[in-house]
Amino acid sequence: SISFTPAATGAELPDGGLGAWCTVLGSFLAQFCGYGYTNAFGVYQAFYTENYLTSESASTISWIGSIISFFVTGLGLICGPLFDRGYFYHVFIGGAILQSFSLFMLSMVKPGNYYQVLLAQGFGVGIGQGLMYVPSFAVLSHHFDRRRTTMMSIVASGASLGGIAHTIMLNKLLNGPFGFEAGVRISAGFVSMVLFLSCLLVRPRYETVQKTSSVNLWKATKKCFTEVPSLLTILGFTFFQTAYLYPMFYL
Fold first, then answer.
1. Mind listing the pLDDT tens digit for each residue in 19-49?
2. pLDDT tens, 209-220?
């Protein structure tokens, strides 16, 4: 298979500069409107349960947020290899467009239409965010070596800040004078502008193309589920995600 490599080795990475810092800011904004938006799903959960999807149980409604969370991290299995092969812009910009489009489609859903909400928000928004999540972190390796972990921490904080900002905004919009239709459209417009800026700022540094040996996905997956350290890690993260996501959805 063909794989792209960063423009410089670890010793030659700039660890700074205008392009590098713009990429950090762009990735931060992607997390702010990506996983940060998912962190605010509790507002939607409460609104759907009490006002918009009253015929559905809270458990059924929570599937919307659960599917989003699955796609955000699960699509890394696809986005990672695509990023390595030089398709950063295809994946990243495609995800931004899909999330924005899906949010505008969500604003058109009428009360009681659970499956339309599930399709627009659960699948549309979830896949869009998933396409941006891994590339927004991976692109930092094209610019930073010594400071890479620090930059990844800064970018990851965008999701936390986004969770705070979007929660406040959605509470005011959905439960205020705007209502669901106008409120979601305002939120979608804000997200679209931020993601547009993110796409302008983020810059990968692909330069050379080299042939690499293909990875057998089946063998790699089998190895992950047969080695004890890997199994313990998976189990630990399963418990962590359960404890981490439950309060955001229900409290």
1. 889 999 999 999 999 999 999 999 999 999 9
2. 344 455 666 777
Per-residue pLDDT tens for 82-112?
888 889 999 999 999 999 999 999 999 999 9
Enumerate residues 6+ apart whose C-beta is below 8 A from 231: 225
Q: Does the domain at residues 22-149+156-214 carry the CATH identifier 1.20.1250.20?
A: yes
Those residues whose C-beta lies under 8 Å from the C-beta of residue 112, and which sit 6 or more positions away, are: 52, 53, 54, 55
What angle in degrees, to the nearest 10, is found between the helix axes of 126-138 and 58-74?
30
Token digits of residue 64: 């919307």
- In this structure, the number of other CB atoms found within 10 A of the CB of residue 246 comes to 11
For 72, 138, 152, the CA distances from 148, given in Å and listed in that order, are: 22, 10, 6
The domains of the chain are located at 22-149+156-214, 216-250
